[in-house]
C-alpha cells in the first residue's frame, strides 16, 4: 500500500530551527561598547545551512504540494545555491536540473562545487552568458527551460530568492525579535535581507553586506518585498564596498582575517559570504555605525 508523500520539507529535511544565538567576547567590538552575537544559522541543517534551508523549504513545500517531480534552478559555476538545491532534491527524492551560466564550461572538468551538484544527482545544463543574463524575460526563460529538458519542472529562481523564500527568511527575523538591535547578513540576491528585515520587530533593523559588485541590490530588495508583501517591510540598509573584488574573491587579507576570527572564537568562517560580513562589521565600528550598547548580531549563513 502506498502512502502519500509528506509535503512538509521541515520534516523531510530534519531541520532544527531556531538556530543558536551566542554572544562572543571580541575586543574589537568591546572597545566601542558593542556586544557581538552570532546567529549560528549554519547549524540549522547539516547539508542545507542557514539561508539556503530557509529559502528552499517553502519552495519545496510548494513543489511537493503541487505534485512536481523535479526542480530547476540557476547559478554560476561556484553557486552555493546550486549545491543546496541538488542536496535538497536528493533528500526529498526530487530530480534536479541546474542551468549554469557559461556554455564554455561544458567541455571543462567540473569544479568541486559543480562536481558536488552532479554527485547529488543534479543534471547540469550550461548556457551562454548572454542568454543567462536575460532569463528574467518570459520568452527567454521558456527557451532555456525547454533546452534544458525542464519545461515541466518547478522553477526556483537564482539564489532561491522569491516571495516564498522571503517567508522562510522572515522566520529568521522572528527568532531574533527582542534579542538584538541590529541583525547583519551577507547578501547575494537580497532575499535573505528582505525577509529578515520583514521578520524583525519594532526598534530593530537589518544590515546587509553585498558580496557582489554593482550596486543593484537595493532595487532588488524593494522588488522582492513588493512581490511578497505589496510594499516595504521593516528597516534595512546596505553596507556597500566590502565585496573584496566580487563574488568568490578571497584576497589574502580576507583569508587572514577569517582564519584569525576562527582562532579567536572557534567558529568556522565560510569565505565567500560570512568572512565578508564579519570583515565589514569590524571596519564599520570606528565610523559610529553602531552606537555604544548596541546588540549586534551577525547571521552565520553557511559553513565552509
What does this structure look like?
Helix content is 39%, strand content 16%. It is built from twelve helices and ten strands. The strands form two sheets. It has a six-stranded mixed beta sheet with strand order 1-2-10-7-8-9. Helix 10 links the parallel strand 8 and strand 9. The N terminus is likely disordered.
In total, how many beta strands?
A: 10
Oligomer: single chain
Give the CA-CA distance, first to last residue. Answer: 42 Å
Percent helix range: 25-40%
Strand content: 15-25%
Order of helices and strands: HEHEHEHEHEHHEHEHEHEHHE
Secondary-structure class: alpha/beta
Provide a quick synopsis of the model.
The chain is α/β, with parallel strands linked by helices and 304 residues long.
Fill in the keyword field for this structure.
alpha/beta, six-stranded mixed beta sheet, disordered N terminus, 10 strands, four-stranded parallel beta sheet, 39% helix, 304 residues
Write the layout of secondary structure elements.
Blueprint: H1 9-12, E1 21-24, H2 27-30, E2 35-39, H3 51-65, E3 70-75, H4 80-92, E4 95-101, H5 112-119, E5 122-127, H6 129-133, H7 138-147, E6 154-155, H8 163-175, E7 182-187, H9 191-199, E8 205-210, H10 217-229, E9 236-238, H11 252-265, H12 274-284, E10 295-299
Parallel strand pairs: 2-10, 3-4, 3-6, 4-5, 7-8, 7-10, 8-9
Antiparallel strand pairs: 1-2
Helix pairs in contact: 3-4, 3-8, 4-5, 8-9, 8-10, 9-10, 11-12
Amino acid at each position: 500500500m502506498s502512502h502519500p508523500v509528506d509535503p512538509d520539507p521541515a520534516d523531510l529535511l530534519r531541520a532544527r530551527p531556531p538556530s543558536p544565538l551566542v554572544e562572543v567576547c571580541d575586543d574589537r567590538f568591546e572597545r566601542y561598547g558593542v556586544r557581538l552575537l552570532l546567529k549560528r544559522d549554519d547549524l540549522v541543517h547539516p547539508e542545507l545551512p542557514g539561508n539556503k534551508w530557509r529559502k528552499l523549504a517553502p519552495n519545496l513545500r510548494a513543489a511537493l504540494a503541487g505534485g512536481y517531480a523535479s526542480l530547476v534552478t540557476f547559478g554560476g559555476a561556484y553557486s552555493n545555491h546550486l549545491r543546496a538545491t541538488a542536496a535538497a532534491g536528493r533528500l526529498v527524492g526530487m530530480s534536479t536540473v541546474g542551468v549554469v551560466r557559461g556554455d564554455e564550461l561544458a567541455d571543462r572538468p567540473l569544479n568541486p562545487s559543480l562536481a558536488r551538484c552532479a554527485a547529488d544527482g543534479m543534471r547540469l545544463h550550461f548556457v551562454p552568458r548572454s542568454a543567462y543574463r536575460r532569463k528574467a524575460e518570459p520568452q527567454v526563460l521558456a527557451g532555456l527551460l525547454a533546452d534544458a529538458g525542464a519545461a515541466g519542472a518547478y522553477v526556483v529562481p537564482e539564489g532561491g530568492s522569491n516571495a516564498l523564500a522571503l517567508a522562510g527568511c522572515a522566520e529568521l527575523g522572528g527568532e531574533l525579535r527582542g534579542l538584538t538591535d541590529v541583525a547583519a547578513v551577507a547578501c547575494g540576491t537580497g532575499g535573505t535581507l528582505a525577509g529578515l528585515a520583514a521578520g524583525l520587530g519594532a526598534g530593530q533593523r537589518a544590515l546587509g553586506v553585498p558580496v557582489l559588485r554593482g550596486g543593484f541590490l537595493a532595487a532588488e530588495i524593494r522588488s522582492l518585498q513588493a512581490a511578497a508583501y505589496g510594499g516595504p517591510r521593516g528597516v534595512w540598509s546596505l553596507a556597500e564596498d566590502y565585496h573584496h573584488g566580487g563574488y568568490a574573491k578571497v584576497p589574502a587579507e580576507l583569508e587572514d582575517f577569517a582564519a584569525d576570527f576562527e582562532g579567536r572564537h572557534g567558529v568556522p568562517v565560510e569565505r565567500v559570504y560570512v568572512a565578508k560580513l564579519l570583515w565589514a562589521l569590524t571596519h564599520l565600528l570606528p565610523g559610529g555605525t553602531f552606537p555604544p550598547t548596541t546588540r549586534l548580531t551577525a547571521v552565520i549563513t553557511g559553513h565552509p
